From TrEMBL:
Superkingdom as given in the UniProt entry: Eukaryota
Reactions catalysed according to its record: Eliminative cleavage of (1->4)-alpha-D-galacturonan to give oligosaccharides with 4-deoxy-alpha-D-galact-4-enuronosyl groups at their non-reducing ends
Functional pathway: Glycan metabolism; pectin degradation; 2-dehydro-3-deoxy-D-gluconate from pectin: step 2/5
UniProt EC number: 4.2.2.2
The protein, known as: Pectate lyase
Sequence ranges assigned to domain Pectate lyase in this UniProt record: 112-309
SUPFAM superfamilies the record matches: Pectin lyase-like
Cofactor binding note from Swiss-Prot or TrEMBL: Binds 1 Ca(2+) ion. Required for its activity.
Organism, scientific name: Chenopodium quinoa
Signal peptide: none
Family: Belongs to the polysaccharide lyase 1 family.
Enzyme class: lyase
GO biological process terms on file: pectin catabolic process
Record keywords: Calcium, Lyase, Metal-binding, Signal
Length: 457
């Protein structure tokens, strides 16, 4: 039976532990040539050149309210070798076979893979899904469900184009399967679960939410994720009448809320939410919203408002008159507001009401770009090419046009960027097809990063 967990009894201890992770990572890296980003999670493991030989050390790098998520740290390594799926009788070597086992498992992938699930992926407790070293997509079908489980880590996978599942039998343990009603089509659905850490995933274009946490879920950290092209991004809290969510505590840290997002980054109900050091690249309606009196502590974020003057406000209160929502504790400290963005505070100005919404020490908002940049993906290389750094130490440039001129390339084109002498990490501002007029000659210390958009040559 799931036992509902109470709020953290000593939030100051959580902050101290988070700062301890930062200090420990800095100390261990002092003699290293690795360039640290200031992101305590990444600095904890990425500068270890042998991380792929001891993957479970990642579990020691968690921060925030989900910092105690063990995942499969104490278990064996299970290797996914088969992209097929059977919702009731999964084959050994498939992802579903691994996640339903009763014992702790650290799940990795033998190859790049796109997994189209037949039904929702019901993950059992004490599991890690670790996509590092492979290009792993869960897409085109129902996606991930964490229901009445604990100690889950999901790291380094792409979750997109998730569809509704259900009205079908689905296995959740080696000995149990049951009938599932119609699902919402979330990317990751967290239901009555605790000690959860979702880190370094990309999420986009799902039927309902990208990440939803409801029905008494708590002790959650959502960090270092890249979210794009979606309407209702993140829901934290089931509904206004669901009082179990009063104990919910969630850390939202170091995420990049990117292009094409509309609202709910996150939308909160009842509980305690620490929104810290995230990068908001515009929004179409609002960024942070809520109802039913949640406590929201916003620190060290960078908010870039849309050009539409009607949508400059970061915050949105719902289902309450002004005289009521003015009592809700929503605060902003050290946030950076760009292009007219503004945060409407409410409730107490004292620090004590926010103690249960404090999970780590915020870094200055001026460092958000370096802490959330995609360029840090370079440190995930393995094998004989593991020391390739590409443009990891350089600036980030965005290609804005598919045009090509081999002799006199224009700024904004791919050819212009890859011939420069300094290290550069090239991203793409839009999906594009590039028809090269001649061979593309790359200079040293260059990365072409097309991981987030379809790019064709």
């Amino acid at each position: 039976m799931f036992i509902h967990s109470s709020p953290v009894s000593d939030p100051e201890l959580i902050v101290q532990q988070g700062q301890g992770t930062i200090n420990a990572s800095r100390s261990s890296l002092a003699a290293s040539s690795c360039r640290r980003s200031g992101n305590p999670i990444d600095d904890c493991w990425r500068c270890n050149k042998n991380w792929d030989k001891n993957r479970q050390i990642l579990a020691d790098c968690a921060i925030g309210f989900g910092k105690n998520a063990e995942g499969g740290k104490k278990g064996k390594v299970y290797v996914v070798k088969d992209p097929s799926d059977d919702a009731v009788n999964p084959k050994k070597g498939t992802l579903r076979y691994g996640v339903i086992q009763d014992e702790p498992l650290w799940i990795i992938f033998a190859m790049d893979v796109v997994i189209k699930l037949k039904q929702e992926l019901m993950i059992n407790s004490f599991k890690t899904i670790d996509g590092r070293g492979a290009n792993v997509h869960i897409a085109g079908g129902p996606c991930i469900v964490l229901q009445k489980v604990n100690n889950i880590i999901i790291h380094g996978i792409h979750i997109h184009d998730c569809k509704r599942g259900g009205n079908a039998y689905v296995r959740r343990t080696p000995t149990q399967y049951g009938w599932r009603s119609k699902s919402d089509g979330d990317g990751i659905s967290i239901i009555s679960s605790k000690h959860i850490w979702v880190d370094h995933c990309s999420l986009s274009r799902c039927t309902d939410g990208l990440i939803d946490a409801i029905r008494g879920s708590t002790a959650i950290t959502i960090s270092n994720n890249y979210m794009t092209d979606h309407n209702k991004v993140m829901l934290l809290g089931h509904n206004d009448n669901h009082k179990q969510d009063k104990n919910m505590q969630v850390t939202i840290a170091f995420n990049h809320f990117g292009e094409g997002l509309v609202q709910r980054m996150p939308r909160c109900r009842h509980g305690y939410f620490h929104v810290v050091n995230n990068d908001y690249t515009q929004w179409q309606m609002y960024a942070i919203g809520g109802s039913a009196g949640p406590t929201i502590n916003s620190q060290g974020n960078r908010f870039l408002a849309p050009d539409n003057r009607s949508n400059k406000e970061v915050t949105k209160r719902e289902n309450a008159a002004e005289k009521e929502w003015k009592k809700w504790n929503w605060t902003s400290e050290g946030d950076l507001f760009l292009n007219g963005a503004r945060f409407v505070k409410s409730g107490s100005g004292a620090s004590s009401p926010y103690a249960k919404a404090m999970s780590l020490s915020a870094q200055p908002a001026s460092l958000v770009a370096s802490m959330t940049k995609e360029a840090e993906l370079a440190a995930c290389a393995i094998g004989f090419g593991k020391n390739a750094r590409g443009g990891n130490y350089g600036s980030i440039y965005a290609d804005t046009t598919p045009d090509d001129d081999p002799k006199n390339p224009r700024p904004g084109t791919l050819r212009y960027e890859v011939i420069q002498d300094e290290p550069l990490w090239t991203n793409f501002a839009q999906n594009m097809v590039i028809k090269l007029e001649n061979e593309l000659m790359l200079n040293s210390f260059t990365t072409i990063g097309g991981i987030l958009r379809p790019i064709f040559f």
